[in-house]
Specification:
heterodimer; A: alpha/beta; Aspartate Aminotransferase, domain 2; 7-stranded mixed beta sheet; 4-stranded antiparallel beta sheet; B: alpha/beta; Aspartate Aminotransferase, domain 1; 2 domains; 38% helix; binds pyridoxal-5'-phosphate
Amino acid sequence: MSDPRATTTGNRGLQIEEPLIFEQGSPDKTAVDLPEPPSTKDRLGGVRRSGPIGLPGLSEPEVVRHYLRLSQKNFSIDHGFYPLGSCTMKHNPRLNEKLARLPGIGDLHPLQPTATVQGALALIDACAHWLKALTGMPAVAMSPAAGAHGESVGLMTIRAALEDRGDARKRVLVPDSAHGTNPATAHACGYAVEGIPADDRGRVDLAAFREKLDADVAAIMLTNPNTCGLFENDILDIAAAVHDAGAFFYCDGANLNAIVGRVRPGDLGVDCMHINLHKTFSTPHGGGGPGSGPVVLSEALAPYAPVPYVVQGPDGFELIEDPARSDAKPFGRIKGFHGQFGMFVRALGYMMSMGSDGLRQVSGDAVLNANYLLACLRDTVTLAFEGPCMHEVLFDEGFLKETGVTTLDFAKALIDEGFHPMTVYFPLVVHGAMLVEPTETETKATLDTFVETMKALTARARAGDVEYFQEAPRLTPRRRLDETMAARNPILRWRPPAVDKAAE
Amino acid sequence: MRYLPLTDDDRRRMLDTIGVHSVEELFRDVPDAAMLAEPVALPRHQGEIEVERAFRDFAAANLSPSSAPSFLGGGVYRHHLPATVDHLIQRGEFLTAYTPYQPEVSQGTLQSLFEFQTQVALLTGMEVANASMYDGATACAEAVKMAARIKKRDRVVISGGLHPHYREVTATYNRFVGLRDAALPPDWRGGEDAAAAIDAKTACVVVQNPDFFGRVHDYSGLASACHAAGALLVVVVTEVISLGLLKSPGEIGADIVAGDGQSIGNALSFGGPTVGILATREKFIRQLPGRLAGQTVDVDGRRGFVLTLSTREQHIRRDKATSNICTNSGLCALAFSIHLTLLGEAGFTRLAELNHAKAVELADRLETIEGVEVLNDSFFNEFTVRLPRSAADAVEAMAKQGVLGGVPVSRLYPGESELEPLLLVAATETNTDQDIDALAMALRGALQ
Ligand SMILES: Cc1ncc(COP(=O)(O)O)c(C=O)c1O
């Protein structure tokens, strides 16, 4: 009866259970030896803390073990295949980590006199140059901290340009397949959001789009290639219609990896587009950030870009931080200091490593890998829309019909096989979406193993082994977690047990 | 090319399987006119040796604060980073994971976020904290929008002691959502009366502690005034090490705390990336933007963690979300959490004491220089001095002597003539007695 795999400790070989830091150590321990502070007078103005903060104290070996053990409970690109659609989980080169930590790069203060940071400003300028050349756009705002932040800058720039010509508009068109950040951004920039349905080819429904486009529309926010992994082949007509209506074309550039080095958004009629450096340009996702989301801009929008920005002056590079010193019309400021400099370093290191030839190969291989998966799986898994696809392929849950297995169950079974699941239930325009983005940094052997696994799991589902899927994953540090309980009774921090009792 | 594993033979076999002759055929949905026939006009690929050399050249054109006496603050501070921090955050399992959407294979990130949230709540004296924002300035702007939603009011009082970048970012965000700012003038003399600016439409008052000019405040009177008028108090912290020594914002009566956690665990990195922190009272969590890690159990009854309360967020609520934030500052939050764990209560408190003591020594020293006047009656590790000449010019002159002697206030508040002689100087545990000597000498020289 007893589970032969049960252990006294709860540990399982290399998988070691790890309590919270607050459940370890003692207040008098520390892993940082600091000198005794010199005795000086107190100039704190009488606002000194009286009680303890409540932080735990651990020695260095305990801290190292804690985080090492935690790290071993994560799946990562370094482990294996991570085909998370829309997220571009490609290899993160370690060279770029080294570059970001070089003395004279990682240790610069943002408010040093600009004469002492000419190399840093040159680096920002070089990164900007690559981004402009690759997108065929004349200007770029470097300061946004991530894709969604770039979306804000894009729409704020558009609104500033419209207001400047006395043409306040109220609505922004957003396809139903768009990422959640798009409607959220439009709203945060003071616009009403209007959806556009997808047609049966997974593209923008042109008739519906034309019907909604009028003189009150400020912009369309269109992802291209779109979130179904397809190139919007009517894009030139869409851009022309948007411009004829006096509106702007915002392109969500999250999927730039599909076209980098082959197609320039500037040639597609785009007015502005954010670039997630943490996707196409390989800066690490870091478990959720930091990212960087520079926004490329057309001539018409460039004057409204936010401060700060770098210009080349007679005595070297200058940083324009003060709108009054600008000869343009910046709409304001959206971030402290000068943007995600550490990410510019990494992205530039990547771009210089790949070069124009390598980046062209990147999009070619990314698209090849996705279409290879499409071809190998189309008879097994339901393809949502006919290909060719771009850098990612969208399936839906049609193939699981009547098996009792859901997209979520299927994803969890993939985890036991050593894969990170694809993006599930996004985009919202198909049922039980499975969006698979292999990226160019995977071998054919990995893709083949994934294909075999998908086929074997599908056969298992069709054979009626529902329980196998509903019980998955079985081999992970934790099995399915109760998300309803987490939301209903939120526990968002640790509290000392004794205090909890006293409060009851 | 070292990052691309496919061989030409692989590519050919894959094209055969797909049933096309070339990769170009897969791009057939792209309008012909937009397909580039040639690579973009940029340099070709390079090896590590060449790329590293190019970056060493960039580095050589900068004056690094690690190799010069440096007293720069103004929202970003140079602190010692234990070697362990950088080692641990570079473990691939942390560095190369995405947002923890699949909790069964993300317990490492999720548990560390839960610990981060707890640490931030403890430091700020708040009940809950989120899993990070982009930086302090955007956290401040989001705090203000949050207060406006909670209070359903549209006016915001901004203290003249708030970091100018935070003011500008908040003003920019506000303008687009139709919130009105009442921004008080730069409070370099101290003594601002923010309570007097509150009216019946005021959603919140935003103050900073220590303020931009370095002064330390007990805002409990202001907190009471806010609450009496039905407004919230937002307290901004740009130097989180100060929380080791000062009363927490929570103790003072803050409703929302926004700040930048750079000082703990994060390199200067020319000002980014850093880690925005946002903490509040439990009753406001439904209005809190950003990700939240929460505790739960798995099917076997074991404790585990998940992202929770996502009905506040863009991927569920779309245009009704509390914010559009998606990617945040995950790895910077991890660095913060590891550094603070290494320090512990004893180390963190001592670090704060050390910073204060260094700054007191520095102030004592600068006061001995003729014409230099320390304006602060109180400070933590940063204060403002008035010079008998333009501070920007003095800073340029000191830089020529290889000393990074502080931040001229006019860099952040341009065009205000009475601010031109003001210099912001910060001292941390990294500054030695020799650094202080070097600054005193360079400043004397700059004032000759
Ligand atoms: C299509 C799309 N748009 C926007 C975003 C938002 O980008 P970020 O997470 O960098 O803010 C994402 C990524 O999550 C995305 O996939």
